[in-house]
Amino acid sequence: MPEIEEVLPKYLQISRDIRSRIERGELGPGAEVPSERELAASWRVARPTAARALNELRQQGIVESRRGSGTYVVDRSALPAARERGDRGRQYGSAHSENESVTVLEAGVVDGPVWVRKELAVSVGGSVLVRKRLVSNDSGVSELATSWFDAALAEIAPRLLDAERLAGGTVGYLESVTDRRVSYARDRMSARLATTDERRHFDLARPAAVLVYQLTLHEADDAVLQFDEVVYPPDRWEFQQEYSASS
C-alpha cells in the first residue's frame, strides 16, 4: 500500500506516483487511471484530496476525463513538439533534432513583461533572465521560443547568458549546476494575432494569426524554475489526436 510522505502535499504525492507509473509504461496511452474512490482507499485520504490529485494531472495534460467513463492517460504523441523537447534533451543530449537549426536571438537580464514576472513570482520591479531562440528546419522557420527565468539564476547558471545552444537544453543544464529539479509542469495553448517581431521572423503578412504554447516548469514546492512561450506560424498548427467517441 502506498505511504504518504510529509514533505509534499498529499495530492502532489499521489499525482507524482501516477505520473511515475505512466512514465515507466505501467499505464500506457489510453489506459484508465485509478478513480477518486480507488485512490482515496489505497492512499487513505479523503475523496477531495484524490480528486485534486487527478485534477493536477489533468492540468498538466497527462490525463483526460471522459464523462460517464473515467480518467485516461493522454497520448503524448499528439501533443505540441515544445513539450517533448525536455525529455528529448535528457535522453539524447540535445533538445532539438538533427535537422533543426537553432539561433539564439537574445540572452540576458531584462525588466521583463509584467505577466512574465507574475508567472515567475518575481516582485514588482524585479529583473528576469530571458533566452529567445529561432528554430528552423528544411521547411523553414518552425517556431520562435522564449524561456524566462528568475534573474537570480544568472550567477548560479551563467551559461544561460551565452548566445549559443545548451547541450541537453536549459532544464538539463539547470539541473546539472543546481540542486533544483522539475517535479511537474503545466501548459496552455491559445491563438492570437502575430506581433510585428513575429511577423518579421515568420515572414507573415499583416494581419496573421499564430499559435502560442506556454509551458511552466515547477519544482516540488510549486516554485517556478522556467517559463516557456513557444510561438508557431499558421502552417505549423496541426496537432492531431485520436480518441474513442464511445459513451
Write structural notes for this entry.
The structure is a single chain. The chain has 247 residues and is of the alpha+beta class. It folds into 2 domains: 67 residues, Orthogonal Bundle (Arc Repressor Mutant, subunit A), CATH 1.10.10.10; 158 residues, 3-Layer(aba) Sandwich (Chorismate lyase), CATH 3.40.1410. The protein contains 8 helices and 8 strands. The strands form 2 sheets. The chain has a 6-stranded antiparallel β-sheet, covered by helices on one side. A two-stranded antiparallel sheet has the order 1-2. Strand 7 and strand 8 form a beta hairpin. The longest helix has 14 residues. It is globular and about 55 Å long. The C terminus is likely disordered.
Describe the structure concisely for a colleague:
The protein is α+β, with helices and mostly antiparallel strands.
